[in-house]
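User: Hi! I have a protein structure encoded as tokens and I'd like to know what sequence might fold into it. I'm fairly new to this, so please keep things simple.
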């Protein structure tokens, strides 16, 4: 998957989200309820930021390496609320690169993600309980490599599609709790080399030891049926300071019930002025089907097992806030 293809698919995804939001006046519920195009029922906004860091050392007695890093982040939402209808949409894009040492060193990824979420709710009782259907899609822009330079991931390898239906409890404007007792989770590995070795939990291929070729190629997708819980909180803590967090839990009914996949994301944004922003993002992941390689002191691979993954990205740089803020009162 080349850079042009990746950029095209990303722009295509963005266009779908924007077109869907703009064409809400054509959505019908049943035979009579129609969502009007009156924009007063919409809350829209987001953040775009870019952070650049350079470290240059000459005859520096304390030691260290020259480095250049660049991180970009984009987050947008479009939420609709009227009468018994609520519809929340969000898109997050993140990408970062770093190069250490002299100019001959290669750039390495520090951040790479695409996350699209849409959730539709219909009020059941009072002002807090909704019947809800959620769709969550996640993947990355381009390939990733391990410490030995071997390719271990790529665009749509993996990609995760989660479709859930259940109940959504919204006690106030800043918090929601979703429970989906009927949830399908699809894992895609569309790179055949990675699928052949069973990466990210798909069924591996059958290798012929004589020819060195695969008699049966690995599966490109894996389907799971289970239960899903999502807790989301978004709040404007004070003027120019916002905080959002999202915790997602999934367990498979059929295989290893009780083993829980975890995805916990946090974002703090502090606006210094119209164009300068400080932001801190963290993500914690755990998935029984994702095996992390283990190395000995000599750098040799000695095995692999599921492990807790954690990422933290802190940036100070140029940013632009547009529209409203989720969770503002």
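Assistant: Happy to help. Inverse folding works backwards from shape to sequence: for each of the 329 positions I chose a residue that suits the local structure. Here it is:
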């Amino acid at each position: 998957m080349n850079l042009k293809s990746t950029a095209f698919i990303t722009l295509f995804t963005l266009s779908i989200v924007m077109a869907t939001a703009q064409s809400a006046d054509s959505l019908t519920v049943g035979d009579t309820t129609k969502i009007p195009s009156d924009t007063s029922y919409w809350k829209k906004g987001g953040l775009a930021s870019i952070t650049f860091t350079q470290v240059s050392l000459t005859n520096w007695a304390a030691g260290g390496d020259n480095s250049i890093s660049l991180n970009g982040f984009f987050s947008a939402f479009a939420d609709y609320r009227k009468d018994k209808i609520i519809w929340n949409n969000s898109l997050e894009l993140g990408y970062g690169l770093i190069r250490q040492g002299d100019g001959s060193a290669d750039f390495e990824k520090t951040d790479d993600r695409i996350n699209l979420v849409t959730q539709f709710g219909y009020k059941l009782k009072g002002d807090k309980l909704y019947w809800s259907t959620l769709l969550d899609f996640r993947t990355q822009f381009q390939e990733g490599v391990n410490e030995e330079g071997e390719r271990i991931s790529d665009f749509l390898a993996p990609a995760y599609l989660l479709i859930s239906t259940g109940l959504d409890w919204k006690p106030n404007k800043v918090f929601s709790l979703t429970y989906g007792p009927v949830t399908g989770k699809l894992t895609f590995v569309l790179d055949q080399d990675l699928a052949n070795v069973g990466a990210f939990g798909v069924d591996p291929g059958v290798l012929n030891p004589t020819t060195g070729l695969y008699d049966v190629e690995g599966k490109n997708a894996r389907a799971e049926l289970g239960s899903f819980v999502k807790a989301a909180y978004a709040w404007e803590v004070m003027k120019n300071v916002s905080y959002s967090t999202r915790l997602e839990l999934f367990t498979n009914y059929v295989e290893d019930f009780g083993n829980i996949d975890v995805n916990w994301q946090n974002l703090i944004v502090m606006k210094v002025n119209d164009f300068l922003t400080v932001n801190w993002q963290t993500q914690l992941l755990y998935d029984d089907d994702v095996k992390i390689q283990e190395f000995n002191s000599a750098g040799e691979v000695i095995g692999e097992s599921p492990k807790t993954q954690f990422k933290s990205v802190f940036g100070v740089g140029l940013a632009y806030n547009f529209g409203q803020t989720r969770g503002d009162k």
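A useful reference point when you look it over: Residues 1-36 have pLDDT under 50 and may be disordered. Feel free to ask if any position seems puzzling.
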